[in-house]
TrEMBL record:
SUPFAM superfamilies: SMI1/KNR4-like. Residues 22-128 form the Knr4/Smi1-like domain. It comes from the Bacteria. Residues 1-25 form the signal peptide. This is Knr4/Smi1-like domain-containing protein. Pfam families: SMI1_KNR4 (PF09346). Keywords: Signal.
Length: 137
């Protein structure tokens, strides 16, 4: 758990980031129910605090809770993405985690090839790296 709010972290790294209103605790819990397991606590906390994070040019760093549910349900039906829970990314590369094994860190998954690579040690590392990279552009 962060000692400061996710909102403060995001805006400290990229002041131009777009944050929605926080998701309700009920919406976050319902997302876990629809997906068959509770969302990881750091992701749930981020969603309750920010509602999702968009970086420069509207890049989806962390999707809103509704998109997390929709896209994961669709991907489970259409793609062999394994045990990943996706929460960000775009058309060709999705970002997620293995909720049952936090030691896997944050993983980018290539839709076309199925290749996985670790991009951050945890959610805070991912969010700050993703936003800091956008801050340089």
């Amino acid at each position: 758990m962060l000692a400061v709010s996710w909102r403060d972290v995001v805006l400290a790294v990229l002041p131009s980031a777009t944050l929605a209103g926080g998701a309700s605790a009920q919406a976050v819990a319902a997302a876990g129910e629809r997906l068959g397991a509770a969302l990881p606590e750091d992701l749930a906390e981020l969603l309750r605090d920010t509602g999702g994070v968009r970086g420069r040019d509207g890049v989806a760093v962390v999707w809103p809770v509704e998109r997390i549910v929709r896209d994961n349900l669709e991907l489970r039906a259409d793609a062999p993405s394994g045990a990943l829970l996706f929460f960000g990314g775009g058309d060709t590369e999705l970002v997620g985690c293995v909720p049952t094994d936090p030691s896997c860190g944050i993983v980018a998954w290539q839709r076309r090839t199925g290749e996985r690579r670790t991009v951050a040690t945890d959610l805070a590392d991912y969010v700050t790296r993703a936003l800091a990279g956008q801050n340089r552009g």
